[in-house]
Amino acid sequence: MKKTFALVLMVSSLCAWSAPPANFEARVEAVRKAAEVPGMAIAIVENGKVTLARGFGVRKLGSPEKVDGDTIFMTGSTGKAMTTAALATLVDAGKLRWDDRVSDLIPGFQMYDPWVTREMTLRDLLVHRSGLGLGAGDLLVIPRGTLSRAEVVKRLRFIKPATSFRSGYAYDNVLYIVAGHVIDLVSGQPYEDYVREHVFKPAGMLHSTSDEAHRFANANRASPHGRTGGLVRGVGPLKLLDEHDNLAPASTPAGLLAISANDMARWLQIQLAKGKLPEGGRLFREESSAEMWAPQTIEPIGPALPGLEDMTPGFQQYALGWEIRDYGGKKIIWHSGGVFGFVTVVVLIPEKNVGFAITQNSEDGQARFGLMYELLDHYLGLPKKDWPTRITNVRKARIDAAVKAVSEAAAAPVQSKPTLPLEKYAGRYVDAWYGAIAIDSAAQGLRVNFTNTPNMGGRLEHWQYDTFVARFDDPNIEPAYVTFAIGAEGKVERITMKPVSPIADFSFDYQDLLFTPAQ
Q1: What pLDDT digit, counting tens, does each position of 446-499 carry?
Q2: DSSP code of 399?
Q3: How far apart are CA 282 and CA 92, in angstroms?
Q4: Helices and strands per DSSP (H, E), number in the chain
Q5: Residue 15: exposed, middle, or buried by beta-carbon count in 10 A (0-12, 13-18, 19+)?
Q6: Where are the domains positioned within the chain?
Q7: What are 140-164's pLDDT values in tens digits?
Q8: What whole-number distance in Å separates Cα of residue 173 and Cα of residue 253?
């Protein structure tokens, strides 16, 4: 009798959480509208079944076309898990091992340190423990870029590490580009083709795209939106952004895949089934699934944010393209993603056999994360909380503090003049890993042009001493302080940079640049 009662309790408990929250779709609409998000797409999978896969809102601000279950959204770094899955198919085929040395896979591969060059493995490429600083090398591909993956790999040797190898965690994109190049070489196909044919097609993800040609050929795609009109990003009215700002083909393995809600539901089913396809067969072996979810690198946990204390995990680690953490006493496997004008989150709760994904075509993240935590609370049986409002309040405080800091800095430069006549600052300068910039002098003043990044140019406004502020023509690009160091001979010896905004995205890694006059 006790066993029967326990079984009834267990079944009742499962039934209580076997569907999305009551009135969830209305809740999504309310949150979306409150956050001024033009469009969203949400997929939910429970016990192997798709219980929700649909769109909300519109594909583009001011246009009538609705988001539906097949509308594709850029999904940012959540694509790192798909790059890992592509590698897993090659591991399963016996063409790779997770601990193969990268130098054996890519001829001429070289990191800054020869010992790291020798020891770096395929696994190391995927777990953010290389010793590179946060976002190091991102300016090679962000906001745009013309370099090939092979050229990005070649320039790695010039990026100085921030810490010793395997000693700590620092998120990077550039090593996922290297992982994509491994796929290029080992498969004999470009990464984009391999993912389309060996991941998307067998997975039944038939609307997803891995390259710009297929993406722009799909009329049912969401357009990017952001707030770029204020002192810092995130302030000002929401506006349509340039779709081409997310196109640096070399960086596709790090996060330039476009995926629909219906396709994301397929991906959630496969992940929860540990590689098994819904109709039978496998995308990758269960052993490879275990490797993907196995924690590798401990992530530091920062202080709890006021108002979000109960969101702070007790542990957080990075696996192969996934983050592992706890919430509500359960293990959560997840990853967030963002590119210009889009943000995404993908969440798996293995113990509950539940997964969900939320994508949106704007950068304001309170809707994405707010709904994420409301769904987590629902499936874990935790008390309801108004997460979108909580996150909105924290986000507003962060942006307000950044606006204040930028305003105060702009109001208090030292009243000074440049050391040299403006034309003396002009010239061509080279950084070892980025390449060249050109400083031009004209009647209107100085301009800077990042020669490896199409349309990344702007005026230099004098700020104080020999420091100028680069105001780029493209509002998507974060302004930067540009400081010229003058040598004893009265000539520019070097140029350093740093972002103006204290909350600039880490991919604007200006601080890692050191330009010297071209010889």
Answers
A1: 999 999 999 999 999 999 999 999 999 999 999 999 999 999 999 999 999 999
A2: H
A3: 11
A4: 16, 20
A5: exposed
A6: 2-60+69-401, 422-517
A7: 999 999 999 999 999 999 999 999 9
A8: 9
CA–CA distance, 232 with 248 (Å, rounded to integer): 24
Indicate the Cα dihedral angle 58, 59, 64, 69, nearest 10°: -70
Amino acid identity of 497? M
DSSP string of 237-267, one letter each residue = --EEPPGGGG--GGGHHHH--EE-HHHHHHH
**In angstroms, rounded to a whole number, what is the distance separating the alpha carbons of residues 163 and 128?**
12
Residues 255 and 339 sit within 8 Å (Cβ to Cβ): yes
- Tokens representing 238 are 């929401």
Note the CATH architecture for domain 422-517: Beta Barrel (2.40)
What is the arithmetic mean of pLDDT over 125-145?
96
Closest to 200 measured CA to CA, from 283, 271, 273: 283
Picking from 243, 260, 255, 267, the residue whose alpha carbon sits closest to that of residue 207 is: 260
d(CA 155, CA 172): 15
Query: Domain spanning 2-60+69-401: which superfamily?
Result: DD-peptidase/beta-lactamase superfamily (3.40.710.10)
Looking at the DSSP bridge assignments, the partners of residue 55 are 41
What is the token pair recorded at 369?
């994360």
DSSP state of 79: G
Q: Which residues contact 341 (CB under 8 A, 6 or more apart)?
A: 74, 223, 224, 225, 226, 241, 243, 245, 246, 361, 362, 363
Please report the pLDDT score of residue 17 as a whole number. 47
CA distance from start to end of the chain: 87
Question: Is residue 109 helix, strand or coil?
Answer: coil
Nearest-CA neighbor of 288 among 122, 128, 171?
Answer: 122
Q: How far apart are the C-alpha atoms of 102 and 41, rounded to whole Å?
A: 37
3-state secondary structure 128-187: CCCCCCCCCCHHHCCCCCCCCHHHHHHHHHHCCCCCCCCCCCCCCCHHHHHHHHHHHHHH
User: With b meaning 16 or more CB within 10 Å and e meaning fewer, what string describes 277-312?
Assistant: ebeeebbbbeebbebbbebbbebeeeeeeeeeeebe
